[in-house]
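for the writeup, i need someone to sanity check this before i put it in the appendix. the sequnce is what the collaborator sent (i think, or maybe the updated version? ugh). structure was predicted straight from it, no edits. if anything looks off just tell me and ill rerun, i have time this weekend
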Amino acid sequence: MPPVISIAKLSKVYGTGHQALSEVDLEIRRGEIFALLGPNGAGKTTLINIVCGIVTASSGRILVDGHDIATDYRAARKAIGLVPQELTTDAFETVWATTSFTRGLFGLKPNPAHIERVLRDLSLWDKRDSRIMTLSGGMKRRVLIAKALSHEPRILFLDEPTAGVDVELRQDMWRLVRGLRDQGVTVILTTHYIEEAEEMADRVGVIAKGRIILVEEKVELMRKLGKKQLILQLQAPLSAVPEALTHHHLELAASGRELTYTYDTQAEGTGIANLLADFAAADIEVGDLSTRQSSLEDIFVDLVRTSA
């Protein structure tokens, strides 16, 4: 199946000379949840804005659902729903009016049943006659999502969708995104909340300094790059790692009562058996053992640090 979004050799240089994107190649699969991670200034929002036709690329080609965004802009844009990072709404309009109007901008006939369904899914139905200026920040964020879904797009971009919102809305968002994916909608989200990508994404892309440095299945990424740690609680504190154990590259906690051993889950052997044998030979008594797995945040930080 061809990708729903295909980006080839995409670059963007602003008038100031700042290169926001450099030779970006990326394909988004139909019906997946794709998380784009990167530090501030990495180029995430620029990339989304170019795909959505808000910013003009300096070079490169983008196909959206088979439509070139440069030569077939209307068809490409109609396939996309965009929830921007900024809270830009028609403050004096009601929730119902602005959502319905947005649908009309895409040349679609009124569909009150669809608008009602979207508002109910976002817990906005009771606010449908409220002016947007009277809503809280979280409710305004919900309105932006409702506007993006008003024309029934097959691709939804969420640019930092839960930044600065409460936990309840974040949970609502996750449920909504899963439901959209189940309906065949492709969802691309950028986020600073690593747990959001870890919870939601099928695949993860990492961008740094305008370049895509990695695209991988989330599960495979964590399998390949994730590390495990064995934490050993000691019966008696140590002032330093004994010489006989230094080749294991252990980390000693400040208390002196905890040693951490980091090992590669993909290596042929973990080295734990040899480690414990060396502990016994050094007459170090272990009171308890526990393990800890790398999170997606750990992997992300390592990747960005490596690319710096």
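The radius of gyration is 24 Å. The chain has a mean pLDDT of 87.
thx in advance!!
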